[in-house]
Model the fold of this input.
Amino acid sequence: MKYESADSGLVKIPGTPASYTDDQLASLQTLSDVMATGFHAAKSAEVKPGDTVAVIGDGAVGLCGVIGAKLLGAEKIILLSHHEDRASLGKEFGADEIVAEKGEDAVKHVLALTKENAGADAGLECVGADSSIEQAGQIARPGAVIGRVGVPHAEPKSNLLFWKNIGLRGGIASVTKPDKEVLLKAVLDGQINPGKVFTKSFDLDHVADAYAAMDQRQAIK
Done:
């Protein structure tokens, strides 16, 4: 029998669309994309109970990474965010601290929020830029693991990860049934509500407006 991706990735949602509210349907929709990817970032970073986790990227995937880190038991979650609306949603999703600075100031702030300024136990890189990989290495403690799910703009050039024995894992979120079943249960139990990342709606005749809203940071997703 030929093996298909659907055999490992599809999960049946109980009932019918009429069984759910619009908010629930929005959250269920994220399980096919951004929530699954954010959870993949947290799992790739080997987030475990008690960890301090830094999340780079305040788009829909980064915000769902906050949820993923929380589900895996992170004790402190630090979200790097420069946008008030996204930072606010990040706090609602479980971020304990927001770092709004950029560059070296952001690095100093994150380190100050960790034990003995050693850095985060795990990092979630949800941007894809070479600079964000570099920043993830700067704010991670020696021996930490970075979960990388941002689509790469270029391959990282830094040797910083080498000198600090930092692991870099991740890639395309090939989320399988066990993970999706965890996320599905969390949505159905009301434990998480990732559908809040959808902040605007458009019909198909206005798809260009939707992309413009994303580009101009008028919508999260």
